[in-house]
Amino acid sequence: MAKTINFDQIVKENAENVKFVQILNEKGELVNNGLKSSLKDEEMVALMKDLVWGRTVNKRLVLAGRQGRIGNLPPSEGMEASQLATLFAIDKQDFLLPTYRDVIPLVKHGMPLSNAVLWYRGHVAGNHFPEDLQGLPAQTIIGSQMLQAAGIGMAYNLDGEKKVAMTYIGDGGTSQGDFYEGINFAGAFDSPVVFIVQNNQYGISVPRDKQTKAKTLAQKAVAAGIPGIQVDGMDALALYEATKMAKDYALAGNGPVLIETLTYRYGPHTLSDDPTRYRPEGEVEEWQAKDCLIRMRKYLGDKGLWNEEMEQEVIDATTQEVNEALDTADKAPKMKVSEMLESVYEVPTPRIAKEIAFYKEKEAN
Fold first, then answer.
1. Listing from the earlier edge strand, what are the strands of the sheet with 193-199?
2. Looking at the whole model, is its pTM more than 0.85?
3. Digit-coded pLDDT (tens) for 304-358
4. How far apart are CA 339 and CA 171, in angstroms?
5. Which tens digit of pLDDT belongs to each residue from 246-262?
6. Which residues form the Dehydrogenase E1 component domain (predicted)?
7. What's the rounded Cα separation, in Å, for the pair 325 and 113?
8. What positions carry a catalytic annotation?
């Protein structure tokens, strides 16, 4: 009798073979799975400060958005570990390619916060970076940063530089063609790239299980022949370790790694969105109980490394930092069309040069 092919079993094994990484559970307790944090006590405290800083920046920017002081902000509250613990694992010399929801980690990587405010306002100065900042402006074209990251990683290989590129993309972005092209190109050329897929459960209003039949997003790495793992996106310690290991793996000449972070955005897609229209009742509260700050407070508090006073100091300092950034942005000169056009090409094309001259004459009058 001829054997049959069990296609359903193949699909099942695709998901089952994905490794899930966790160090701290929802109660802030260490999980006994053989994986431990390599961070020293002072490094854990520094990471916790980054998480509190990120939460505070987000809350203050949302408030500024409600006041009309910035544009249509895409909030990221709830995703601090997914963004900042992964960032904690790379160096300033490494290249960061964020999405429109990842401006906060871009600021932590070296972008002035006042420039971030201007970016949210659509001001050209929001794309002006310090010369030593290794990164690109936040990408609004979904998925295109995947290809850019692959190319930057390839350039590092060609130049013999021991650096990695790290890029973020959302769960919805993995449905874009550029996503597949990016991981395939990076895999084919062993580009040292860490792809962070932030699975915050919704592509705008579309639930993740309606976006793809794949049980995990990490398994999409299989098609590119690269490692793909799934990490508890609310576990800052696990996210750091996974990203650090992925970076080391890439720098050893093995090529890219894809990390799916299981996370959640507590707020709307943007400030013009009403998430109550598509989220079931109680879902937000369920995820808030898994919050990264709750876990780290418990774990570091039990070790005598963190307390309420320390957290309040970070909140107060960050609040002042955001207020100063807003005030600085308010004083920025009104944007000129000519400046916007000058930011397109290093050497303007004849057509753009003609437009620049036209608008400069108009602005002078």
1. 20-21, 228-232, 257-262, 193-199, 165-170, 95-97
2. yes
3. 999 999 999 999 999 999 999 999 999 999 888 998 898 788 999 999 999 999 9
4. 35
5. 999 999 999 999 999 99
6. 52-337
7. 6
8. 265, 269, 278
Annotate the chain with three-state secondary structure.
Answer: CCCCCCHHHHHHHHHHCCCEECCECCCCCECCCCCCCCCCHHHHHHHHHHHHHHHHHHHHHHHHHHCCCCCCCCCCCCCHHHHHHHHCCCCCCCEEECECCCHHHHHHHCCCHHHHHHHHCCCHHHHCCCCCCCECCCECCCCHHHHHHHHHHHHHHHHCCCCCEEEEEECHHHHCHHHHHHHHHHHHCCCCEEEEEEECCEECCEEHHHHCCCCCCHHHHHHHCCCEEEEECCCHHHHHHHHHHHHHHHHHHHCCEEEEEECCCCCCCCCCCCHHHCCCCCHHHHHHCCCHHHHHHHHHHHCCCCCHHHHHHHHHHHHHHHHHHHHHHHCCCCCCHHHHHHCCCCCCCHHHHHHHHHHHHHHHC
